[in-house]
């Protein structure tokens, strides 16, 4: 499990640790780790550290101090190091160390700063770290802008300046780093978008904070965690022990969603899929997934699901429609005390009538930002900007587990760390993949996982399957490990490809 913390949590742990150590120890450890991470970057560009050019962007706080001390270490190895002092003050001991090692420091001025950055092999962003508040002020914002054109490598010290460490929020100018060297523990903003997308590869330097850290605020499952959590069939398993999932999805207009949701459930290992819907989706599901047991629902029936048979969890909503008949189905399913996953059109019914969520069984809601905007009645952009906060708020207000889809999918449940998903690929942003996700999570719910684990394991498998599908069969075995992202060498995928790659994803855990 990868764990992450707010700035306040990190600061409290640092204070507790610092009280037991001579002054300057932690910054010394941080700077040593930072310089050690920089040396290979310079060696790769120049063949060696000696003779390379390093520019430090130095703010007024300890983040700048880290950069100055790391710069001093690189200067001692023969790098030409120039510090641009952007704040009203700079870390004095750090500055003295840099100068003693032969490095130079200049006050910020736009022309010379641009020139130095333009000639650097490496730019270290030490403007602000966990002490940052609000959008970057001047001249920090201008310097952040200059880094966008830097020909050299940009490494962020602790956190890319402009990213709020606690939330991942980005409110203005921001440094886009190729790598971030962070100290003591991951900060939330390094794992959650939009901040995470500015970090590049994140390297964690251990400064001894571990024993002083509280319960994490955010956590990311690893492949091993998912492998441990997934229900496994035992020799005595039958379909009921493996889990029977009921899916109510699709309509005569949007029948495809049904095929995709059913596919997610079948390929994620449901013991049995019972599929209940209108005529056209039932016909399609029967044709594509003959293992599903299907029921055509009678329009206008008082209790439309009476003939479906026993299930252990429900998925309701993908493509179901927003009309009266769909509403009756959503209402009847939510009236059971079974675990229920509500997605897509199901969320529209719930947003219109929140009383549907007053129920005894566990509920998992799987909105994207637009759907959550309707559920919470706040603008979509605000949700995109503050994903952790809104996922948490939705879980508390709606009394449900909430999986917020997006480039970093989050799972929130009251009194638990928000889980952030680490798998996925930009190719996953295509129609129908959400329907597959609902089927996977539903199968895991029926298999006995609670909403929190089912949602986070489903997101992980879904993202991993997408990578495998996008990378193609030849590359899947070696590449595409969780944690690395990006479309390099990948090709477009369709939602059904994701479902079909699920067995491979489970094998790859
Ligand atoms: N504590 C430890 O043990 C260790 C800490 N470590 C390191 O210390 C870092 C935290 O250092 P920190 O607390 O000094 O805060 P930091 O992020 O440098 O900036 C604060 C100053 O920046 C300014 N400022 C704020 N917002 C701004 C904005 N939007 N735009 C512009 N300016 C802004 C504001 O200054 P002012 O404006 O008042 O001049 C404020 O005082 C941490 O990230 C890690 O790198 C490591 O060495 C490991 C051990
Ligand atoms: K920084």
Explain how this protein is built.
- Helix content is 41%, strand content 16%.
- The chain folds into two domains: 2-218, Rossmann fold, CATH 3.40.50; 223-508, Ribokinase (UDP-N-acetylmuramoyl-L-alanine:D-glutamate ligase), CATH 3.40.1190.20.
- The chain has helices at 7-18, 25-46, 62-76, 92-100, 110-119, 140-147, 188-191, 223-229, 239-242, 256-267, 279-288, 324-334, 345-352, 369-376, 380-385, 387-398, 433-446, 451-471, 473-476, 495-500, 502-508; strands at 2-5, 53-58, 80-85, 104-107, 122-126, 153-157, 179-183, 186-187, 201-205, 218-220, 244-248, 272-277, 293-296, 313-316, 340-342, 363-365, 401-404, 410-412, 418-420.
- With 509 residues, it is α/β, with parallel strands linked by helices.
- A twelve-stranded mixed β-sheet has the order 8-1-10-19-18-17-16-15-14-11-12-13, sandwiched between helices. The protein has a seven-stranded parallel β-sheet with strand order 4-3-2-5-6-7-9, sandwiched between helices.
- Strand 5, helix 6 (140-147) and strand 6 form a beta-alpha-beta unit.
- Bound molecules: ligand NPW and potassium ion.
- Residues 14, 18, 26-27, 30, 59-64, 66, 87-88, 128-137, 140, 157-158, 183, 207 line the site of ligand NPW.
Distance N to C terminus: 14 Å
Q: What is the name of the CATH superfamily of the largest domain?
A: Ribokinase
Q: Could you give a short account of the major beta sheet?
A: 12 strands, mixed
How many H/I helices? 21
CATH architecture of the largest domain: 3-Layer(aba) Sandwich
Bound molecules: ligand NPW, potassium ion
CATH fold field value of the largest domain: UDP-N-acetylmuramoyl-L-alanine:D-glutamate ligase
CATH class (first level) name of the largest domain: Alpha Beta
The number of domains: 2
Overall 3D form: elongated
Q: Tell me, rounded to a whole number, the average pLDDT.
A: 94
Strand content: 15-25%
The low-confidence parts are 476-486
User: What would you call the structural class?
Assistant: alpha/beta
Provide the gyration radius in Å: 26 Å
Q: How is the largest sheet built, in terms of strand order? A: 8-1-10-19-18-17-16-15-14-11-12-13
State the share of residues found in helices, binned by percent.
40-55%
């Amino acid at each position: 499990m990868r764990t992450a913390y707010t700035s306040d949590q990190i600061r409290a742990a640092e204070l507790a640790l610092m009280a037991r150590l001579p002054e300057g120890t932690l910054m010394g450890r941080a700077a040593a780790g930072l310089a050690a991470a920089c040396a290979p970057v310079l060696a790769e560009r120049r063949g060696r550290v000696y003779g390379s050019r390093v520019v430090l962007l130095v703010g007024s706080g300890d983040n700048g101090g880290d950069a100055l001390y790391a710069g001093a270490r690189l200067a001692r190895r023969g790098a030409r190091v120039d510090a641009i002092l952007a704040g009203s003050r700079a870390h004095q001991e750090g500055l003295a160390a840099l100068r003693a090692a032969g490095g130079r420091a200049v006050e910020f001025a736009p022309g010379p700063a641009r020139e130095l950055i333009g000639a650097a092999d490496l730019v270290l962003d030490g403007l602000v770290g966990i002490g940052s508040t609000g959008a970057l002020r001047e001249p920090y914002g201008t310097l952040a802008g200059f880094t966008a054109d830097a020909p050299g490598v940009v490494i962020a010290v602790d956190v890319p300046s402009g990213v709020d460490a606690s939330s991942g929020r980005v409110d203005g100018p921001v440094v886009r780093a190729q790598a971030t060297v962070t100290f003591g523990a991951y900060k939330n903003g390094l794992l959650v978008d939009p901040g995470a997308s500015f970090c590049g590869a994140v390297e964690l330097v251990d400064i001894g904070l571990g024993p002083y850290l509280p319960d994490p605020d955010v956590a990311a499952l690893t492949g091993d965690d998912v492998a441990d959590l997934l229900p496994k069939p035992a020799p005595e398993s039958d379909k009921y022990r493996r889990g029977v999932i009921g899916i109510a999805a699709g309509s005569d207009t949007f029948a495809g969603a049904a095929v995709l949701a059913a596919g997610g459930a079948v390929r994620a290992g449901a013991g049995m899929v019972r599929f209940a819907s209108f005529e056209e989706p039932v016909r399609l599901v029967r044709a594509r997934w003959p293992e599903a047991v299907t029921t055509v629902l009678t329009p206008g029936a008082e209790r439309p699901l009476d003939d479906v048979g026993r299930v252990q969890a429900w998925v309701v909503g993908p493509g179901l429609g927003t009309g009266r008949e769909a509403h009756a189905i959503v209402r009847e399913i939510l009236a059971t005390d079974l675990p229920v996953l509500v997605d897509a059109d199901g969320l529209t019914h719930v947003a219109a009538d929140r009383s549907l969520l007053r129920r005894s069984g566990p509920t998992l809601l799987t909105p994207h930002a637009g759907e959550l905007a309707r559920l919470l009645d706040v603008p979509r952009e605000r949700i995109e900007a503050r994903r952790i906060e809104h996922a948490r708020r939705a879980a508390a207000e709606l009394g449900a587990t909430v999986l917020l889809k997006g480039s970093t999918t989050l799972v929130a449940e009251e009194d638990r760390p928000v889980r952030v998903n680490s798998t996925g690929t930009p190719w996953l942003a295509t129609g129908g993949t959400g329907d597959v996700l609902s089927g996977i999570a539903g199968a895991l719910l029926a298999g006995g996982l609670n909403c929190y684990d089912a949602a986070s394991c489903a997101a992980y498998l879904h993202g991993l399957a997408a990578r495998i599908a996008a990378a193609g069969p030849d590359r899947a075995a070696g590449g595409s490990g969780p944690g690395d992202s990006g479309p390099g060498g990948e090709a477009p995928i369709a939602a059904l490809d994701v479902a079909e790659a699920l067995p491979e994803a489970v094998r790859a855990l």
